């Protein structure tokens, strides 16, 4: 069993999609959960209610991941709310794609602020609260390793940066018994990339399994890394992509 009874997890962007699935899975495995959201108050509240129905404690914290102060405050609030912080899942992200000519400084700054700076700052803040056994898990993307469509330069840049961040965190925090890992989902059936979108058949064709993942399948790998089964895995990038990158 990969239980995490009595631990506290913070999941950024936990109101929908992969973040929601991760928050619920960690609660099912025994963690109390704090989740952040930007705008979708009702969705965040619904996830909190579901976690409470599971029998765990949960709160939702409004935070714009582009705001350094808000990110840091959310981490500190998570630790203060339940008296500890054991697991950080850097899941919140923005998906900005388009021809390179159309992606200017505003798009660059927003993408890097949310997809790179926020995970870095959240990890930095979490490290102050974590003790031995702490887990930092970031959610990247398969396009960090294989970019098959045009228009993904900026998004791929931001997700590839997480590979280096994860390796550095693993080296810095390993002596304290804290692990850091990166999960790269492939095509996953979410609001941002539904399995019935006009390009879905083409996207599926790049996977070995010929299908989209469910958010629960991504959450299962995150939960493994968060639990005892992941205690000797650090600095790793794990592709949960149905064979997209092979």
What does this structure look like?
With 246 residues, this protein is α/β, with parallel strands linked by helices. The chain has a single domain, classed as NAD(P)-binding Rossmann-like Domain (Rossmann fold). Helices cover 43% and strands 14% of the residues. The protein has 7 helices and 7 strands. The chain has a 7-stranded parallel sheet with strand order 3-2-1-4-5-6-7, sandwiched between helices. Helix 5 links the parallel strand 5 (135-139) and strand 6 (179-185). Helix 1 packs across helix 7. The longest helix has 25 residues, at 105-129. The two termini are 30 Å apart. The mean pLDDT is 96.
List the helices and strands and how they pair.
Elements: E1 8-11, H1 17-28, E2 32-37, H2 41-54, E3 58-62, H3 68-82, E4 87-90, H4 105-129, E5 135-139, H5 153-173, E6 179-185, H6 200-205, H7 215-226, E7 237-240
Parallel strand pairs: 1-2, 1-4, 2-3, 4-5, 5-6, 6-7
Helix pairs in contact: 1-2, 1-7, 3-4, 4-5
Summarize the structure in short.
The protein is α/β, with parallel strands linked by helices and 246 residues long. 43% of the residues lie in helices and 14% in strands. The chain has helices spanning 17-28, 41-54, 68-82, 105-129, 153-173, 200-205, 215-226; strands at 8-11, 32-37, 58-62, 87-90, 135-139, 179-185, 237-240.
């Amino acid at each position: 069993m990969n239980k995490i009874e009595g631990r506290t997890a913070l999941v950024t962007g936990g109101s929908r999609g992969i973040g929601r699935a991760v928050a619920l899975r960690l609660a099912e495995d025994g963690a109390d959960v704090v989740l952040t959201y930007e705008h979708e108050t009702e969705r965040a509240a619904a996830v909190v209610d579901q976690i409470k129905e599971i029998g765990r404690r949960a709160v939702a914290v409004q935070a714009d991941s582009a705001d350094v102060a808000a990110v840091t405050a959310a981490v500190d609030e998570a630790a203060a709310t339940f008296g500890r912080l054991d697991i950080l899942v850097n899941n919140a992200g923005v998906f900005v794609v388009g021809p390179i000519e159309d992606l200017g400084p505003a798009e660059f700054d927003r993408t890097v602020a949310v997809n790179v700076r926020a995970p870095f700052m959240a990890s930095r803040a979490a490290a102050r609260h974590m003790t031995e056994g702490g887990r930092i898990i970031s959610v990247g993307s398969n396009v960090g390793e294989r970019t098959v469509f045009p228009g993904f330069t900026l998004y791929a840049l931001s997700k590839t940066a997480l590979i280096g961040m994860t390796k550095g965190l693993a080296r810095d925090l390993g002596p304290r018994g804290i692990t850091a890992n990166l999960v790269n989902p492939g095509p996953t059936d979410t609001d941002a990339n539904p399995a019935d979108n006009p390009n879905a058949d083409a996207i599926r064709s790049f996977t070995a399994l010929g299908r989209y993942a469910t958010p629960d399948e991504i959450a299962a790998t995150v939960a493994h890394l968060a639990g005892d089964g992941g205690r000797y895995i650090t600095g790793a990038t794990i592709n949960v992509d149905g064979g997209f990158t092979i």
